[in-house]
Design a protein that fits this description.
This protein is of the alpha/beta class and 370 residues long. The protein has twelve helices and 16 strands. A seven-stranded mixed β-sheet has the order 3-2-1-4-5-6-16. A seven-stranded mixed β-sheet has the order 11-10-9-12-13-15-14, with helices on one face. The structure holds nicotinamide-adenine-dinucleotide.
């Protein structure tokens, strides 16, 4: 099976869908990989490294020619989608719940699209779970950004010049990114508290050495392990409880998300005003509108001395390791869809059917014969 790796063109995107190490593994398993010139450059992977791993390095105009699969990170632009061949397999973060226009475009092209966001979160698909791998990177980077922007050191220090109290960090939302943020903030020496609306999380928070901050609101959990949206009353209750507690913290990292919905609003503007000058909020939900009312997606702002970091796509700021992890996820999905390099699409399979977001009639051998 020939697999093409384009150079990402979305603004600020530094990741690449396959890294040389994974290209080499795929080459030994019936896949032939073509990488567009400079596709890995922004993540630190050279064309020479891809060529040594067994990839063909092609000019952008020729990259996807003859490929049965195109693997990428961000969704293709309208122009890129327009160049995709009929019945080509496309793998990437395709934003199926939010980018209806993009999905319709792929559908009109007859593309067989697999969205990394739609991989079912079942044990068998764990190696393909790119939401988790990238959330891990984002949670780590969020803490580093907070530590960098904060005028306070994280650890307790006892020196001849006196004692420095540890930073106090609050992590809101303790899913994959939040748990990684807790672990990273703890390693840097902060005293960490965390909150999530899913009650199952309390034990995980405590096992990482953080205190569970009970804000008194709980949400149901869906079969997929996600939180359901709070009612407006619960949301007001949560905001109120948080407003009381938030002035205690130097660092607040928010990661609360509901798939396909705007990010829940946890921190209203008046709660930010109660925080001490020098405090930092890193809003990992910025791309979905933000957990803080004052977050400006893509920007870093100052609200009366409180720094609010609303940068989006944090995994892209750690492009090498984010790409390594993502490439492993893509490799696992390719091997699932095309064992031994032979495309065998069984849409009755939970992973194949679950991750597929667009497909033309006749996308399987059986349908073709019918
Ligand atoms: P996510 O990114 O969608 O959400 C992040 C967190 O925000 C979640 O923990 C959610 O409960 C929380 N949240 C939502 N609304 C909130 C609110 N109002 N206040 C505070 N917190 C709020 O979720 P995620 O990190 O991708 O994962 C969620 C769950 O899926 C976790 O239980 C995780 O362990 C599970 N998971 C399972 C698998 C698997 O079984 N293979 C893989 C990955 C994740």
């Amino acid at each position: 099976m020939r697999v093409a790796v384009p150079r990402e063109t979305a603004p600020g995107e530094r990741r690449v869908a396959l890294v040389p190490e994974v290209v080499q593994r795929l080459a030994g398993e019936g896949f032939q990989v073509t990488v567009e010139r400079d596709a890995g450059a922004a993540a630190g992977f050279t064309d020479d490294a891809y060529a040594e791993a067994g990839a063909d390095v092609a000019e952008p105009s020729a990259g996807a020619r003859g490929a049965e699969a195109v693997v990428r990170v961000a969704p293709p632009s309208a122009a890129e989608a327009g160049k995709l061949a009929d019945k080509v397999v496309l793998i990437g973060f395709l934003a199926p719940l939010t980018d209806t226009e993009g999905i319709a475009r792929l559908s009109a092209r007859g593309v067989i699209g697999f969205a990394m966001e739609s991989i079912p979160r079942i044990t068998r698909a764990q190696s393909m779970d790119a939401l988790s791998s990238q959330a891990t990177v984002a949670g780590y980077k969020a803490v580093l950004l907070a530590a960098d922007r904060s005028p306070k050191m994280f650890p307790l220090l006892m020196t001849a010049a006196g004692t420095v109290a540890p930073a106090r960090a609050l992590i809101l939302g303790a899913g994959v990114a939040g748990l990684q943020a807790i672990a990273t903030a703890r390693r840097l020496g902060a005293v960490v508290s965390a909150f999530d609306v899913r009650s199952a999380v309390q034990e995980q928070v405590e096992s990482l050495g953080a205190a569970f901050l009970d804000l008194g609101v709980r949400a149901d959990e869906t079969a997929g392990g996600y939180a359901t949206e709070l009612t407006p009353e619960q949301q007001a209750e949560q905001q109120h409880a948080l407003e009381e507690r938030i002035p205690e913290f130097d660092i607040v990292i928010t990661t609360a998300l509901i798939p396909g919905r705007p990010a829940p609003r946890l921190i209203p503007a008046h709660a930010v005003r109660k925080m001490r000058a020098g405090s930092v909020i890193v809003d990992l939900a910025a791309e979905a509108g933000g957990n803080c009312e004052l977050t400006q997606p893509g920007a870093e702002t100052d609200a009366d001395g409180v720094t609010i970091v609303g940068l989006t796509n944090l995994p892209s700021l750690m492009a090498a390791d984010a790409s390594r992890l993502y490439a492993r996820n893509v490799q696992a999905l390719l091997q699932h869809l095309a064992p031994g390099g032979e495309l065998t699409l069984d849409f009755a399979d939970e992973i194949t059917g679950g991750a597929c977001v667009t497909r033309p009639a006749g996308a399987t051998a059986d349908e073709e014969r019918a």
